[in-house]
Design a protein that fits this description.
Blueprint: H1 2-18, E1 21-24, H2 31-36, E2 43-46, E3 49-52, E4 55-58, E5 63-66, E6 73-76, E7 84-97, E8 100-102, E9 105-108, E10 113-123, E11 126-128, E12 131-134, E13 139-142, E14 147-149, E15 152-154, E16 157-158, E17 162-165, E18 170-172, E19 175-177, E20 180-181, E21 190-193, E22 199-201, E23 204-206, E24 217-220, E25 225-227, E26 230-232
Parallel strand pairs: 1-2, 2-5, 3-6, 4-7, 5-7, 6-8, 7-10, 8-11, 9-12, 10-13, 10-14, 11-15, 13-17, 14-18, 15-19, 16-20, 17-21, 18-22, 19-23, 21-24, 22-25, 23-26
């Protein structure tokens, strides 16, 4: 009986350990349903494919990553809103890794990704083909401090590739190019406003086009640290 009890306990622990990794679409058919059924510390792995979704992660410390990288795994927002919202995760760790994030639209703050009160890691993504009317066609950061690392941010329209206000992101080793702003807007590549203090290092920022100032980088009322970037061909 004691042996059976021990074996049962081991089985339960093993099952609980396995439940910490969730696969889409194996375990849940959509990315959002997997997120909704995840808990702090879980990893959600998304198989290759195109997922027509607008997803939101709020208040959870999870890792959301693709199985085979950004070129194989696409989250398409279908112009129905921001593609990925990372909200209210300032006190916990959240990782978004390895997706193509495209076809998002927002009137204000974040066509591709919107970060609010978030301390996320955004890495190894392709953020392209998103649009806004104002502020952050690719990524918008508002009252947050994400780490934005090793992403390709290109071909976003209407606002900055990365837009920061009241934020202190780490922006490093990204390729930020061919983003354009709408009429009378600044900052096509990276824009920093309102007491932001970003670290901008080791990025390639090129061939972005702003209607006003700051085709490459534009900072206003901010205290950025800018070092070791390659900035060229911006207008």
């Amino acid at each position: 009986m004691r042996l059976l009890t021990t074996l049962g306990a081991i089985f339960v622990v093993h099952t609980l350990a396995l439940s910490n990794t969730i696969y889409v679409p194996d375990d849940y058919p959509t990315i959002q349903s997997a997120i909704d059924n995840s808990h702090n510390g879980d990893t959600v792995i998304v198989r290759p494919g195109t997922y027509m979704e607008n997803i939101k992660i709020s208040g959870k410390a999870i890792t959301l990553r693709s199985e085979q990288g950004a070129t194989s795994t696409i989250i398409d927002g279908n112009s129905a809103g921001t593609v990925v919202k990372l909200l209210n995760t300032f006190a916990v760790g959240l990782v978004l890794d390895g997706f193509t994030i495209t076809n998002g639209y927002s009137k204000n703050r974040g066509g591709g990704i919107r970060c609010y009160l978030s301390k996320s890691t955004i890495s190894n993504n392709i953020i392209s083909g998103n649009s806004v009317e104002y502020y952050g066609a690719g990524i918008s950061c508002y009252h947050c401090s994400p780490s934005i690392i090793d992403n390709t941010i290109s071909g976003n329209i209407g606002g900055s590739g990365i837009y920061c206000t009241v934020s202190s992101p780490t922006i490093t080793r990204n390729a930020i190019f061919e983003n354009t702003t709408s009429a009378q807007c600044n900052a096509a590549g990276i824009g920093c406003y309102d007491n932001s203090s970003p670290l901008i290092s080791n990025n390639k920022i090129f061939e972005n086009t702003a209607d006003q100032d700051g085709g490459g980088i534009y900072c206003h009322s901010s205290s950025p640290a800018i070092m070791n970037n390659s900035v060229f061909g911006n207008t």
